[in-house]
Specification:
Radius of gyration: 15 Å
Structural class: alpha/beta
Largest sheet: 6 strands, parallel
Shape: globular
Number of domains: 1
CATH architecture: 3-Layer(aba) Sandwich
CATH class: Alpha Beta
Bound molecules: magnesium ion, zinc ion
Number of strands: 6
């Protein structure tokens, strides 16, 4: 079986202060993300991004095609920096549809578990929101809350993750320990 590190995208890897980011011109990685992902790329963990895009695609703020363009831009930058991302899963569904993949539902994690034969209990999930923590906890993955723009330490700790850290590199250090 494989181990995996599940990564939330918005405000965990890339800056999304205004919400619903989809414009390549606004693409900006958060501090330490390149360095941290490089280190993780050298491990035998599968690196899997899981991102909710239903608030944008589902609501019609941008299209699936816009999302793909933005996603490809991100993946190119990672590639240029020697970073391996094994897969990106996204949920495109309108928040009201009650699909099985929008976080805090664990649908994307379960899909990855199938596709990559992932041992969830030996895997990690990094995210900046309580919803991420709830997703991780529902399948018993080791959960690190990374403090971002929207939710502070107190809020993240209230959801009982295994760790709360101030930035991405700190999370990477915990995983590599
Ligand atoms: Mg996020
Ligand atoms: Zn969905």
């Amino acid at each position: 079986m494989n181990k995996a590190i599940f990564l939330d995208r918005d405000n965990t890897l890339i800056e999304d202060k205004e919400g619903h980011i989809h414009e390549i011109e606004k693409f900006k990685l958060l501090d330490g993300v390149i360095e941290g992902l490089k280190k993780l790329s050298e491990t035998d963990y599968k690196l899997i991004i899981v991102t909710d895009q239903g608030g944008g695609i589902g609501r019609g703020l941008y299209t699936e095609e816009d999302y793909e363009k933005f996603n490809n831009h991100m993946l190119n930058i990672f590639k240029e920096n020697g970073i391996r991302i094994d897969k990106v899963y996204h949920c495109p569904h309108h928040p009201d549809l009650n699909c099985s993949c929008r976080k805090p539902k664990p649908g994307m994690l379960l899909k990855a578990k199938e596709e990559f034969d992932v041992d969830i209990n030996k895997s990690w999930f990094l995210g900046d929101k309580v919803r991420d923590i709830e997703t991780g906890k529902s399948v018993n993955v080791k959960m690190i809350g990374v403090i971002g723009y929207e939710e502070d330490r107190e809020k993240l700790e209230s959801a009982n993750p295994d760790y709360v850290v101030d930035n991405f590199l700190e999370a990477v250090e915990i995983i590599l320990k």
